[in-house]
Amino acid sequence: MKRFLYARDGSVSVYLIVIIVPIFLFHAVLIDFIRVKLVERETEAAHQAAIRSVLSRFDRELQNYGLFGIAGSEEENRQLFQSVLDYNLTTSEDDSVFRYLDTRSEPDDIRLRPLFTLANHVVFRQQMLEDMKYKAPIEFTVELLDRFKKSGIAGQLQQSAKFYEHANEIEQKIRPWNDALEEAWETAQSYIALANRFYSKYNATLGELKELADRIGLNTADSVRQSIREVESSIERAEETLESLRSSAQSLSGTLAELQKNAEANAGAIQSLFESLRATNESISETNRQISEYVQTKYELEQLLKDILAYTALLLGSQSSFENDFAELDLLNEELQQKIEKARVLNEELRQEKEKLKNSLDNDAFQSYEVLDRIPVYSLEYFSVYKTDSGKILAKFSWLRSKWQATTLFIGEDYSEISGQLEQMRQQISSFESEQGAKERERHERMEQLETSDKEQKEKLGNALKELNSVIGNCGLWGEQDPFTSLYRKLEGESEENPGLYAKYYQYNSDLPAEPDEVYTPDQPGQTVKQVVSFSERISGLLTGIRDEIYMNEYALTRFNYRTAKLETGKNGVPPATHETSKPLDHPLADQEAEYILYGMNSCSGNYSAAYGEMFLFFLAIRTIEGLLEPKNAVLNIGSPLLVFMAAAAQGAFEAVRDMQKLVKGEAVPLLKKLKAVTVHYKDLLRLFMLLHSNDRKVMSRMQALIELNTGVDLTQRTTYMQTTASATVRVWFMPAAMRLMDGLGLLNCGNKDNRCQITKTAVMSY
């Protein structure tokens, strides 16, 4: 038994087995791990290629409209997906001897799930915008709006005592309003300075804490003190050992001296003692070295303890000061909010006085509002943003306070999060100071202008412009029989029980029934001027954020036809619509699709009447105002303002009819008689009306209905968003259990199917 325990036979073999077997197992697992990862990447790439191939089977009819939806049956798409997936997976030939990747798809696990179709308005709108943003002539619409905005009728206005009274009252309210805003901005500057000071303070403190925390690591004061005590004990033991070694060395030296008296007789003993003395001296040197190391270690531990104590003091101090600093910043922010609110109240008083002045001028339809537009009244949004942006600084500081108080070790994610929030606070301070500062500088400049031009502005009240942005018209019919009745039945349906294509797509996107469109008619000429004002207000709101609206409207005017599409001339005298891939001039609903999209009436005459009615009303309003600017002396001598207005309206109606006759022939009509170069076409007015009657849900539903009418393609069956799931398997060569273990640990996405590693991928793709 004793021999067996101490025998060395076979030790080398056992050693090699102990070393080599783990290495072999490691490489075996590594090889399978790499193979599975390669298959996972290959499956992902093949999956993406397969879904792209399915999306490539788009409907060619819809492509002519700039739309893309998957054509073909579900089974055909599935087969295409399967074939492309298999083609892109690595499989060895049948006669291959070595198969490094034997990837095999799993047809039963393939899932193709359509998510959205072209019937969905969000998808439909997105594809329209993608189609038109490269070709839509946005500048045409912007230029058209600019024409209406800049073209106005300037008339010399009489300034009444009442107007001056209101103007003086407004001036008296402007000064306290400006003083309140000035006080608020001064407080805001103090608030910004304080916030910047706190940012600098805690940013520097955070850097110090981070530096100390990096040196401290996970050590605590107690653990360091314990380590110091252990080192001190080690030093004491080493010093005792050193003392013992020195005594031994001294004793050996004495004995060696005695023996050297008879060196020849004691040569052997001398040699032995000499070796012992040398070993003892080496031990003394080693012990001295250990003591030095212990002393150095003790010094480092003491420094670490100082760092811990410094970190603790800095942390507690900063946490304590954070509360005081937050209270100070909160108090200043509250003061700022109160001053902003005070300025807002004065702003509303100024606004009310401005509205009072406007109401006093209602009886004079030709007085300009230029002076009123120059009155520096801010919107409610201005004060809301003012309060919100300043409050964001306090909110970020409050978050920092909470996070700071809850953090004990400023390293890792906690440090990064606090550092990032500090940077966000700095950016918010800078943004608030920059943006609000720009507004304040603008206010200062504006107030200086008001101070210097107040008298001049009062003298030029009669020179303000009156915007005339409106749309009016008459009805045009083609005989008594409507040749498009059957088409309109398909579009609008015959009854609620038998809805048409428009209702189909509208209800597909909404649970509520569509409300009838608002159409302006010239039934009450006496309300013309009020309607012009209403249109002006609406058009002024179109000058911002209308890009998507313009794209959609240009899509309707490009892909579909309208009354004068065939009469327009482009290059070589050919209508531009001839070159459109959607062939709008060949559509069954000839010369009226855009009108239908805009108004949605259930007949040709109804849509033409709505369009012509608005166009007529538009020109009637402009021509009436032109007549009022140059009234006839014979009428003026009668002394009846109403008679003057009616005479101008009668003359304006006659001129508007002539304008309509030119317009429906495709000719350009001058917007103003004095500005012959500023003209509009039929299509220009449709652009304007589409912006005024903006209703995306109705417009898109009608477009979808027309597309199905023209192509016969049901858009609810044309998928644009597709979610697919596919699986592939690969055989594990060495240790399937290890792969399953890695799958359980989240290192691999490796399911088990027939003793093969199964990899499943899901993807979503769209046009």
- The SSE order reads HHHHEEHHHHHHHHHHHHHHHHEEHHEHEE
Beta fraction: 5-15%
Report the span from N to C terminus.
81 Å
Name the shape in a single word: flat
Largest sheet: 5 strands, antiparallel
Helix content: 55-70%
Low-pLDDT segments: 152-164, 362-371, 452-479, 522-537, 634-644
> Helix count?
23
Radius of gyration equals 44 Å
Count of individual beta strands: 7
The assigned structural class equals mainly alpha
The pLDDT mean sits at 72
Account of the 3D structure:
The structure is a single chain. 65% of the residues lie in helices and 6% in strands. The chain is mainly alpha-helical and 767 residues long. Strands 1, 2, 5, 6 and 7 form a five-stranded antiparallel sheet that branches. A two-stranded antiparallel sheet has the order 3-4. Strand 6 (751-753) and strand 7 form a beta hairpin. Helix 14 (501-509) packs across helix 22 (696-711). The radius of gyration is 44 Å and the shape is flat.
